[in-house]
Structure formats: structure tokens, C-alpha cells
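Consider the following input, taken from an annotated entry for Glycosyltransferase RgtA/B/C/D-like domain-containing protein (Candidatus Protofrankia datiscae).
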Amino acid sequence: MRDRPSPGTDSAQPAEIALWIAAIAGCLGLAALARAAAGQGWDPLPAAFGGLPFTADRRPDVSPASLLAPAVAAVIVLAAWRGVHTRLRWIPLLVAGYVAALGWAVALAAGNAHLEALTAGNARSGPADVLAVGASTASDGHLPDLGAADADLAALLRTFTEHTGADSYGARARPPGPTLLVWALAQLGITAPAALGAVLTALGAVTVPLVAIAVRSLCHEAAARRLLPVLVLAPWALWTAASVDAVTAAVGAAFVTLGVVGSEPGRRLWWAVACGLFFGVATLFDYAMPWLGATVVATYFVRRRPLLNVITGGCFLVPLSLLSLWGFSWPDGLAAAREGAAHTAARAGLAGAATLPESLTQLPVGLAVVLVACGPLIIRAVRRIRLTPGWPFLVGAVPAVLFGVLTGLAATALEWSWLPFYCWLVVPALAPDPRPSDPGDTARAGTLPLALTIAGALTALIAQTLLNTAPPLP
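Applying the prediction step yields:
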């Protein structure tokens, strides 16, 4: 199978890039008009409060750290242009995709850390520094709980929803899964910030091969192979280094992949059991995760395996029931998280930001974040939704993103909150056009849109250079 695309072989790609730029400008313009109409002026606030989602606050700089990401991107693009993703055997390809995703995330983070260090007046930074800083920032909202967890884990879970003020909202915006993850890593002796950041980054990069496996099952191997370079160089990699949200994305991708692969003819029922257990664990990491479960339900429907819904659903309740016995109620946690979102919005001077009418005004901001995070491939994905056999992925991911906006739970950082869902939104970009008449026709399962992939990588590089992409403090 040969697949050596050239940026000039697809005449639609320049138009899609132009449409993508226009869509971002339009969304930011609508957001600014909404702020002006509300009498809030043009001073930027956090994205979820109706302001502009990104602010340019530093100057570019050339250094070995800043050149690392372009060098990694160039190697990946060259490999894709040479068709390496079509020639490697499947398992080595997954390993290569994982290594490339890990390298891209660390390279972007190293460049970002260097620019942050220059802004702070310190020219020294490196991969270990960025992993340490990222891990410290990502875990700061959970560190106060670690001492309580060591003393009495059950007591921590029982009181997890009792403190929903602004000072604790960073940790309470999620279920206790991330806190338990940081605590478990501490029990294993992983307490140094650099080591913790390295582990979180390595776990988060597993998302790429997991998504490829799921797409291979539902959309043919050719589509999965061509999707790998897209996933590796996606702009959302900016927010995956030393991020608990990236780990959440990996856990979500794990249960979706188990469900999709487990629904194939001839698979044993333990796949559905494992899917349900991972689904329950993923729900303990993110309150929007149950929406992603619709992907598994839709896949079971497509493949006419209704019994698997019962098995997966029953096993899904096991992790939630265990934590309920230890004192954490998931519904109470959701209510507390919404209360915390309202408290944070009120402190920002937007008392109604957590209400439905106010949340609807935030949709342009949320759409702008999705457009930037997914790159111009999101435009092709929208154009080819009707052609993709991977539509079940969208059934789960799209409502999850809307849920974060309408409930205000993504208020502190839209970019990080939606990391578990970006990867599924771009799957239709690799759909064939026109749709093959034979469901097994893999020869026409889309082509790699190399120009759009390069544009996505450039988006990440520009954002890394000009924008402050450091994780927000809880």
C-alpha cells in the first residue's frame, strides 16, 4: 500500500485552511461582541467567562529549546510524506506513533518552558524543568489532599465534596480520580516533580495508539494508519505534557477501544467487562466522561451486540459503587462541581456565568478553542461526517464538549478540560470521498491530508511561541 501524499495533490486543502482561519476569527469576534454587549469591555478574562481564550504575552526567541519542536515536527512530516505509516507493520507502527507523540509533546513543552523562563528573567530551562513545572502545576490542586489521604483515604473521599469554594475548585471541578492517581504515584515513590511529570506525560501519550486501534476496528486499517500522523502532530499536544487531563484522555480512550474492539464478531465477553470497568474508572476522572460512553453504546448498536450493553453497564457501576461505599457520591460530586463553577464565576464578576443563558453565550469561545486545538483538520472532519463509519465516536465526543460549556464545568481551562475528546472529533477527516460502495473497501478509505497536518503542526508551533499555554493554577 503506497501513500505518499503531497501538499499540492488535494485542491480542497487550501480552501479548508482559509475557512478554518475565518471560522476562528468569526468565533473570537462573536465572543468579543458578546463581552462588549454585556458591558465588560475588551479586557480578556479566562476563556470560559466569555473572554478571548488566548492572549499573546511574550516575544519569540531562537534557542536549542525553541528549535526542538520544529525539528521533531519536520522528522514526523518527512516520515509521513515518505509513507512510513503505510509500510510499517501494525504493532511497530503503534509503538512508533506512541514515541512520536511523546517526543512532540515534550518538545513543545520544552520550547514553552524556555519562553516562560525568558519572560521570568531566567534563561535556563530544559525538558526536566518543564516536566517538573508542569507536574507541580497540574498536581497543586491535589497536593493538599495527599496528607489527608495518607492519614485516612476513606475520610478524604467522604469529605471530598464539602469544600467547593474558589480556593478548592481546581481539584473539585473533577471527581477524585486525578487526586487518587497523584496519591497512588506518591505511594510508589514518584514524588519528585520531574519524575511525576514524566510519568503523566508517558501515560497521556498512550492515547494516540489507543485511538488508532479503535479507528482501525470501526473505520478500516487504512484510515487508522493515515490518522496516526494527524494524531501525533495535533495542536492539542500543547497541553498534554505533565497533565492529569492527558491521563484522563488515555483512560477514556482505553474504555472506548475496549468496547469497539470487543464488539467485533468472535470476541469474548471479557472485553465488555473490561470496557465497563475502565468506563467506570474514567467517569471518576471527569464528569463529562459518561457522554463518551455513548460511543460504545452506538458501536454495540451498529454491530448488533445488544447484550454487551448490559454487561458493560453492570461493570461500569462497580468502580462507582466502590467509591460510594468509601464515601464519595458521584451525583453529589457533580452538584458540588457546578456549585464551585458558579462560585468561581461570581468571583470573576459574572454572577450568571453558570446559568444556561450565560453558558450559551460562551459557545463561540468554546468553538474557537476546539478549532485551535484540532487545527484545520476539523473543517475536513465536519465536511465528511456523513461519509465516515466512525460516526459513533462523534456521538460521544460532541455532547461531552457541549456539556462542559453548558454546565460551566470547563470554566477554569477549556483547553485542558476537553483533551479526552479532541482526538475523536478529527476522525471523520480521514473518511473517503465518495463513500465506497463496499463496506470492506479499504483502498478508498481516505488519504492523508498532509497540508492540513502540517498546518496543524504550525498552529502548535505558533501557539507555543506567542501564547501563554502554561497550565492554569487551580
